[in-house]
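Project standup — Tuesday

K.O.: blocked on the structure for the chain from last sprint. Re-posting the sequence here as requested.
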Amino acid sequence: MREQGPISVVLVTAPSAEVAAALVTTVVEERLAACGNIVPGVVSIYRWQDAVQQDDEVLIVLKTAPAVTDRLMDRVRVLHPYDVPEIVVLPVSDVLPAYAQWVLDSGPAPSGR
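H.V.: unblocked you, prediction finished:
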């Protein structure tokens, strides 16, 4: 079972700022994330297909409600160009209450609204 806090931060790497902007715009428009930050200048070194690789990437930092993280992960998988995208969900243990409320209010409308 995934640990939950008042909100979740979801980390995703992308091959370019353009790909990241399209992905973030879609998930924010679809109300799966309240917002996303695109951090340029990430250098990723990783093992893929039994070889060490190095690529320039950007980091996406999404903020969302814990109740929609599974839907957000599924949507990122569909939108992402990588075969195996990095999608890491981090529970937030402490956050400014007003910010957490904004994140929650920016997500999907509760059932019945």
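K.O.: great, moving the ticket to review. The two ends are 28 Å apart (CA to CA). The chain has a mean pLDDT of 93.
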